[in-house]
Write a structure and sequence with these properties.
single chain, mainly alpha, three-stranded antiparallel sheet, 8 helices, disordered N terminus
Length: 152
């Protein structure tokens, strides 16, 4: 009780060691959980660092379920963000074939497919006419993009 009175007089607050509620009255116990285990802000902060928050805060079943639902939602959003960052889209086979037919000699279809090295090779040899012949063959043979996924 002396500890509570001392801290109230100096304007400092006490915290419940069990549930973390702020104690601003001279009652000497927590109104939230009824505990008389009161600590200063510094003591509470050091407890928070060394102990899990689950042991400091008592949650109802509904609150626990709500937290679990939010964690599942966060996990889904993280997966969706990861998919967006990995860019899981494939290129169109029709667009690839049209690019190979009209711009195959320059290797534009290879850049579209995601094969940058092949595209550079086609572009660097375009003056020979060989890339144009290779592009005609690729119109009928290529089925996968640069990452090995089937073109749609």
């Amino acid at each position: 009780m002396e500890k509570v009175t001392q801290y109230i007089k100096t304007g400092n607050l006490l915290y419940c060691k069990n549930c973390g509620n702020t104690i601003a009255s001279q009652q000497g116990y927590c109104l939230g959980c009824g505990s008389d285990a009161l600590v200063t802000k510094e003591e509470f902060d050091s407890l928070s660092k060394t102990t899990s928050s689950a042991s400091l805060i008592k949650l109802s079943k509904e609150e626990e379920i709500s937290i679990l639902k939010k964690e599942v939602e966060i996990a889904k959003l993280k997966k969706e963000l990861n998919d967006i960052q990995n860019d899981n889209t494939t290129c169109s086979r029709t667009t690839y074939r049209l690019l190979a037919f009209f711009l195959g000699g320059l290797g534009i279809h290879e850049f579209y497919r995601g094969s940058t090295v092949s595209g550079i090779l086609f572009l660097s040899c375009c003056w020979t006419g060989i890339p144009s012949l290779a592009a005609i063959v690729q119109i009928f043979t290529e089925t996968k993009d640069g990452k090995g996924r089937l073109m749609s």
